[in-house]
Amino acid sequence: MNRIKKITMRTGLAKACLLLFLFILAGIGLSHGQTIDILLKGGHVIDPANGIDKKMDVAIAGGKILRVAPAIPVRDANKVIDVSGMYVTPGLIDMHVHAFHGTDQGSYIADGWDALPPDGFTFRAGVTTVVDAGSAGWRNFRKFKEQTIDRSRTRVLAFLNIVGTGMYGRFEEQDVSDMNPVMVSYMIKRLFPDILVGVKSAHYWGPDFTQVDHAVEAGRLADVPVMVDLGEHDPPLSIEELFMNHLRPGDIWTHTYANAPWDREVPVDENGRVKPFVFEAQKRGIIFDVGHGGGAFHWKQAIPSVQQGFIADVISSDLHIGSMNSGMKDMANLLSKFLNMGLSLEDVIRRATLNPAKVIKRPELGTLSPGAEADVAVFRLHTGDYGFLDVRGTKMKGNKKLEAELTIRAGRIVWDLNGIGAPVWNEK
Known about the structure:
Blueprint: H1 2-32, E1 38-41, E2 44-47, E3 52-55, E4 57-61, E5 64-69, E6 80-82, E7 87-90, E8 92-97, E9 127-137, H2 141-147, E10 155-161, H3 181-191, E11 196-202, H4 210-222, E12 226-229, H5 239-246, E13 252-253, H6 276-284, E14 287-288, H7 299-307, H8 321-324, H9 331-340, H10 345-350, H11 354-359, E15 376-389, E16 395-409, E17 412-416
Parallel strand pairs: 1-6, 2-7, 8-9, 9-10, 10-11, 11-12, 12-13, 13-14
Antiparallel strand pairs: 1-4, 2-3, 4-5, 7-15, 15-16, 16-17
Helix pairs in contact: 3-4
């Protein structure tokens, strides 16, 4: 009898093991045959984070990137979008915007009219993440978060201004007593580490690097990079001293191609040559950010720089009221400028996806890696006779122009220029 029980137990155990094995196999089968919410079919994928620059399909499921591969079968896809002849990239990261939009009539950018609500200006240009460049300080960041960040479909991250009131006004930005590295670092590191990615120094009129040094100290305490807008000094401060003696590797100089030599030293000298120390600073690890804006991008600086191999690490818009309808327009137009200055499409996409993600220490962004949040942009590259403006209103001619056809944020279509992701009205 005991022998029969033992045999029965062994048989039952064998059956259980067999069933477990079959369940595992079934699970593997399900993972490969998982239902795809959106399948982008036939496009040319450019994903610098993964070294992809070729024709591939992109499958999205549950708000995440499921798979990037050639010829993904359509049988498991709920929606198939034909993107043949188009370029599929990670959603763009615009690392320099001003999004603390509000109605305080006394304010410049912090809760003021000059800043812009991001959703109206991002998706239509393929942008899914923006980084506000110091509009708020530690005193008013909570209002910025409640008013804009928490209400936006665009992912909004931010540099925290070293001045407690942020960019309320030029006079407030001179208040050295309100430049508190400890409070700034506390808010970044302890309160909002998921949102705050760095410290901002800007618009300081003082005769020295006091504001920059306070910002760098806050960045050191919080272990984040510092973005510096150095200008408005009379006489101009030395950018060589800034790069070599005040900033750390990984810190950022914005408005790289501005040309205002009366209050800001510029990279390209009066003979059209990039100053040698600029190349040394880039080798040292100083990050150069475009920060186009309404007054900080001049062909006189940009074209000689690019021709001589001094290319900004990050392409960003400096989006605000003063830039959106002038030379900058949007990120797609800005990337097109660099295409027409000789950069490859992979080069410009890298500077608006992988590079800014590295700078702000968010490697999960700017990528189409499986498991990453499905932030995707689809572009058409048009050829023709085009003109591109700098902030003076002078034109550079070009023959290439990017246009955002489709933008997906967290697996949902948020911009569809020509309805390529929509059914025909009378065929549904």
